[in-house]
Amino acid sequence: MNAVAGWLKASAKNRTTWVLATGLTLVTLVLAFVLWQNKEREINVELLRTNAWVAWQVEKEYLRFLLAVDHFEHHGGDGELRDLMLRFEILYSRPTVALYGPESSLIRSVQGVPETFARLLSVLDEIEAKLNTLAPGDTEAAKQIRHALKPFESALTEVSMSASRGEVARQLNERLDKLQVTSTWLLISLVGTASALLTFLSFEAARSRRLAEWEGEQRRKVDEANRALQQSEARYRHLVESTGAVPYTLDLSLGMLDYIGPQAEKILSYTSEECRSCRDWNGYVVAEEAAKLSAARGRAAQDLVDAELEYRIAVAANNPIWVRDTMKTVCEAGGRVTGYGLLFDITGSKRQEQALATAQKMEAVGQLTGGVAHDFNNLLTIILGNADALAERLPSKGQLQPLAQLIKLAAKRGAELTNRLLAFSRRQTLDPNATDVIRLICGMDELLRRALGEHVEMAFVPGDGLWKALVDAAQLESAVLNLCLNARDAMPEGGRLTISTMNIHFDQEMGARYDDLVPGRYVMVAVSDTGTGMDEKTSAHAFEPFFTTKEVGRGSGLGLSMVYGFVKQSKGHVKIYSELGHGTTVRLYLPHAPGDADDLEKPDDSGSFAPKGSEKVLLVEDDDMVRNHAQDQLRSLGYHVVSVPSGSEALEVLKREDAFDLLFTDVVMRGGMSGPQLADEAKRLCPDLPVLFTSGYAEDTAFRDGSLDCGLQLLPKPYRKQDLAAKVRSILDDWQKRNLGRK
Amino acid sequence: MRQINALTLAIVLVTLPLFGAKSSVHASDHGAVLAVLTVSGLISPRAEADRDAEEVDFSIEDLEKLPQTELRTHTDWTEGLQIFSGVLLKDLIEAVGASGKEIVARALNDYAANIPVSDAYELSVLIAIKHNGQYMRIRDKGPLWIIYPSAQTSSSKVNPYNDRMVWQLSRLEFR
């Protein structure tokens, strides 16, 4: 059927030709049929002729024999008898032939004929018996013979008549008619079917060809449209991606986020679903700027104006990112107002701007101070030299001697001042060496205790395997002393001062968050106090020379400036972390000395691996954003997390359901109980529950109640996910080991 | 029956000369008149005595003196394989020195058929004397029967030479 269809399809191109060919074939078929019928008719005529002849022969020989009988009866000689015998023999052979010969099939089928012949044969048999004893002149026997044959006269005439005309011809015609009718119908139905099939197939072929053409056309159009659409879509997607921005659409009428690009997860650290779940990302915008954003959007929705503004989005604890939000406002066909916008992460450039501004300011101030100090040093040299000369020449007990000594003292103080100024302006002479920071601080112990006074408790928490720092040891000593004196001054009511040291490896990510810090290994020296702390504004200016919060006359305002100048000159970094009312931590990041034996340590190995777990963790943190962030991080590590915003709620949860494997709590929480207090209460409920503290400042102030021996652990903020993972895992593993041992 | 057959044959043989022509000769010299076949027309018998004769008569015995051939074949009047024996037409043509293109073969009744002389040479046409080893009675299509060999065992198709297979053969005329 396929082949036929294929042939039709192929020949459809030249339809006229093959329709003509088919027509010719049909005509030929009809002609052949007519000719075949004629031939059949001829054969039948021949058959009729031979049959008639055979039938006639029987009658003729019958008559001849009767003639011979007559001759014998009237003449009765030997010759007549011989003739009679011959005629008998010939007559005898005729019905036999008619009954069995091939030429007489038709007359045999005429009703009554075979019976007539058979009867004739039996009569001839009887006659033969008479003939055998026939003698010449036996007229009586001849009469008997004639009498016996008499009944056949009319019967045989009838047979030959019917053979030549009526019955046989009718039979023949019947046969022929039947054949003709059958074959005519066959031919008609054949031709009809063929032409119907042909018509149908030709229509079908034409129709399917048209259909295929139409389909092809449609498919081509759809393909073209699809291709154009894909190209357009890809073009805009690539364009958007090339900007590194997060595209979004916002239903301004409802204030609902319609769509936000998948880039959100990478840039904003919130997935598209998270962004959508809080209607828009207003919830993540830093509080003081959310109003600004809402106002801008409200204006856009009302006046159909585009909006462009910069604001911060809190993506993790402590370091919100800056974004520039450019939004085009479009009034859609349905009256809906949609904002099409792009969010650009401008944190880097913002931070660089700020860092540059700070650096430039410090640079300018440094140059100014350095220049002044240098020139002033010259003046002091002259003053001091002349004062010396005066003091020598004046009599030692003279009245003017004390004046000269006073000038000398003032000049010496002035020299000290200029030295400090020079230190800030990074123009002092440094002698950086591989310095063992722990030994250096231990050596300062006595000095510091004396300087801090009795009401300040001092603790030193040295880090394990501390690297050596590449710094000028004497200047570091003076910096640490400076920081300790500042700490003391921040704790007029007394308190606790903690010095700690630690190895820090800054990777790219951490380096970016700490402004212009070059990634690499650093030795951190932190000085924490439990004093009054600073607000953000104060800490921003803390390093500027002559900036002081102390009463006039109590400080020069150069302490932190000197520390800043020294650390920067040593290619390190200083960071202040302060919480107002709780205390301050100043961290010095000093470059580690290369070639150190501890270089073999590979801090990266522990950094890149974040061990997971499935234990149940109770998370307590008063800051919503930090809590959510910590919760997400723990969940992504596989832990089952229950998070609450305060100590009291944490205790309720602990009372309600047990089976927590870890309590993870902030140390300082506004209002209510602090982390250590919560830990004590929790111990009462679940004595075995391990506790992990986290704190953004004053690492060791958490332990001022002396509860260090209870196995409490601290994770300093900010922490990386790997740090969190490692710490949590190690606490849980230790606890499990202990429990096993106990059992 | 045998008695009857013998009698019939005798009668036939005695009767035959009645149909013969005025000047005819017998193929054999002995006087008994038992001719079954008369050959006439364009003939020139070899025997000196018969040379001018217009007809030559053959008795069964005369025919049996000519070369005998056996033929196994089928006919439309019989069933199964039949054995015919007698004189090949070409041998008879030889014997009577016949020329001409056509033979008119006549039967004891009025039947006659035209036989091209070429058939004798191309188809080994036989003038049968015996059928399955028996002489044939007149009622059995005897005494002579022209047989065309046929390969067909049994077929709905009629043998095209049926017209020329003259039985109760009595005369051959060469033209």
Keywords:
heterodimer, A: alpha/beta, Beta-Lactamase, 5 domains, five-stranded antiparallel β-sheet, 24 helices, 15% strand, rod-shaped, B: 175 residues, alpha+beta, six-stranded mixed β-sheet, 19% helix, globular, OxRdtase_Mopterin-bd_dom (chain B), signal (chain B), Molybdopterin-dependent oxidoreductase (chain B), OxRdtase_Mopterin-bd_sf (chain B), histidine kinase (chain A)
Tell me briefly what this model is.
The complex is a heterodimer of chains A (743) and B (175). Chain A is an alpha/beta fold and 743 residues long.
Characterise this structure.
- The complex is a heterodimer of chains A (743) and B (175).
- Chain A contains 24 helices and 17 strands.
- Chain A has 743 residues and is an alpha/beta fold.
- Chain A has five domains: 2-183, no CATH class; 244-345, PAS domain (Beta-Lactamase); 351-424; 433-600, Heat Shock Protein 90 (2-Layer Sandwich); 606-742, Rossmann fold (3-Layer(aba) Sandwich).
- Chain A is rod-shaped, with a radius of gyration of 64 Å.
- Chain B has 175 residues and is of the alpha+beta class.
- Helix content of chain B is 19%, strand content 32%.
- Chain B has helices at residues 2-15, 60-65, 89-96, 117-122; strands at 24-26, 35-41, 55-59, 68-73, 82-88, 102-107, 112-116, 126-131, 134-135, 145-147, 169-174.
- In chain B, strand 8 and strand 9 (134-135) form a beta hairpin.
- The longest helix of chain B has 14 residues, at 2-15.
- Chain B is globular.
- The model of chain B is unreliable at 1-22 (pLDDT under 50).
- Classes of the chains: A alpha/beta (743), B alpha+beta (175).
- Chain A: Pfam families: HATPase_c, HisKA, Response_reg.
